[in-house]
Amino acid sequence: MAGEGKEEVPVELREQPKREEDSEAAVDAMRVCYRGFDPAAYLQFNYTPPRADFQRADSIVPWKLTCLHRAFTEGDVRGEVLVDVGSGPTLYQVMSGCEVFGRVVLTDFLEVNRRELQRWLKDGASSLDWTPYLEYVCKLEGRRPSASSEKAARLRSVVSDVLPIDVHRKCPLTPGAVPTCGADCLVSCFCLESVSPDLAAFTRALGHMSSLLRPGGHLLLIGALGESYYLGAPGLRIPVVPLDEVQLCASLRGSGYQLLQLSIYTLPADMSVGVDDVTGVFFVKARKP
């Protein structure tokens, strides 16, 4: 979604919507928050040390990459089409999956994020050097870090589209974007809780995502716990649904998913770098019956 910087949190987001029109207004207010979102600043805030320190076992980015690597190599998450819901300006979430799936679809509400992804796919230009990420995933796969260039080429070869998406619509993608039967796997990282005005909207968005997934397909979900805001640009505070584990599991069940795995990362004190108030991160592996 996109925000016109340095605004106060809209009043619509401070109240729980009670009617359908109230809910729509709250979602619209959330969209306004994203005007002024800065991909380069967001990447600097969250995807550089200490949060992306590949020499530290307790750094958050290596933890996420390890969770994704395990999920994509356990053998049950497979098929032809992988859709990344709400990619933002990041690529790490599909670096393991691109080896398993023949087609990867990246998506985001914001045009600035889609442009950021397209720049890297076209010629490697990016606001962040993804090489250390590619090298780390190669090591997880038992390959030499020097194989990172091969992995980058593989990723570029399987990404078929970078598409607009709106998880607050019953059909988040345009018709024909995924096979009629649905994608084989969805991955989504730090999207739903940061674009939803409340828990009810978060749960509805999970249900809307389900329409993109075939029966028997898998959902890999990473998100924030206990977070009420994050910075989308210097001075731009974007409200977040402050989830806990109980709410997360209830939302998954309410949206029809079968929870297969839940892992929790607790943020070390020195990972609190002033760009959000997150206390932990969850990783979910779930299945659509």
Task: Please provide a written account of the structure.
- The protein is an alpha/beta fold and 289 residues long.
- The chain contains nine helices and nine strands.
- The chain has helices at 20-32, 39-46, 60-73, 111-123, 131-140, 148-158, 192-195, 199-210, 245-254, and strands spanning 81-84, 103-107, 159-163, 183-189, 213-225, 229-233, 236-239, 258-266, 280-287.
- The chain has a seven-stranded mixed beta sheet with strand order 3-2-1-4-5-9-8, sandwiched between helices. A two-stranded antiparallel ribbon has the order 6-7.
- A hairpin with a 2-residue loop joins strand 6 and strand 7 (236-239).
- The longest helix has 14 residues, at 60-73.
- The chain is globular, with a radius of gyration of 18 Å.
List keywords for this structure.
globular, alpha/beta, seven-stranded mixed beta sheet, 289 residues, two-stranded antiparallel ribbon, 9 helices
Strand arrangement within the widest β-sheet reads 3-2-1-4-5-9-8
- Terminal residue distance: 30 Å
Question: Helicity range of the residues?
Answer: 25-40%
Percentage of β-strand residues: 15-25%
Global outline? globular
- What is the number of strand segments? 9
Furnish the topology, listing elements before pairings:
Blueprint (H helix, E strand, L loop, with lengths): L19 H13 L6 H8 L13 H14 L7 E4 L18 E5 L3 H13 L7 H10 L7 H11 E5 L19 E7 L2 H4 L3 H12 L2 E13 L3 E5 L2 E4 L5 H10 L3 E9 L13 E8 L2
Parallel strand pairs: 1-2, 1-4, 2-3, 4-5
Antiparallel strand pairs: 5-9, 6-7, 8-9
Helix pairs in contact: 3-5, 5-6, 8-9
